[in-house]
Amino acid sequence: MPQPDLLTIASRHLSAAIDPFGAELIHLRDADGRELMTDADPAFWTGHAPLLFPIVGRLNGDVLRIDGADYPMKQHGFARRNAFTLVEQRASKAVFLLEDHAETRAIYPRAFALRATYEIHDATLSITIHIENRETERSLPASFGFHPAFAWPLPYGQPRDAHRIIFEAEEAESIRQLTDGLVDPAPRPSPLAGRTLALDDAVFAADALVWDQIRSQSLRYGAPTGPNLRIDFPDTPMLGIWSKPGAAFVCIEPWHGIADPVDFNGAMAVKPGILILAPGETRTVTMAVTLEH
User: Fold this and answer.
1) SS3 72
2) What pTM was estimated for this model as a whole?
3) 3-state helix/strand/coil string of 91-113
4) Which end of the chain has fewer CB atoms surrounding its CB within 10 Å, N or C?
5) What three-state secondary structure class fits 177?
6) Distance CA 33, CA 16 (A)
């Protein structure tokens, strides 16, 4: 179960509260204490911003194939279900660490370290993830994804149906759709009008919107008037956007990895979107959230 005590970091413009269980961002609030994250209504989804490792999304049959063997692996992996160790704490910075242990090795036979650094500077929260392969001879296949659920609507007086997401770049004319949590190979027409996604419950009737080849490295979320959130994700080539009809959140999810295609039953090392870390190698994945007035 999650630990009861959240760790808070802050600047004059933002504060963030993180649960060491999963190193999960629970609250992000502006200088007046207004909540920018999900209300976590259990009627829809109780998550806030889980860290997805060593997989993103679902595996076919919930089976991970590595080293010629099969292992059970639940959707989005196990990092979100493990307690991280707090290794550094300052007023505006906190660093959490998850290392492999007997339970992780039983389903993911690799030595690794996953380090999550949260830092606030002015009106920006930066999240930096370091994935370290601690194997001396074997590669480390892995995926990583962010899954933050932002308040929809944001707490600035604009109606829910006024909110939109504006992409930094022009995107492809098609996206992917999920079928029972797996990627359907058939393309789906993009819901974007130019670079803008108008947020509406109908957009999410069939599950998440998935860009498996995202061109943008940044986007803005909010209403035309009032503060917006800018989300930067320079290290992730895929993006999911998800909500549930009627929910008070929208998830903006930069990914380095994706759910299994419907017909995929191969080894983890050849799964789409996988990172392959050489022995001793460390990879960095970052995301930043800026409150813009």
Assistant:
1) strand
2) 0.96
3) CCEEEEEEECCHHHHCCCCCCEE
4) N
5) strand
6) 10
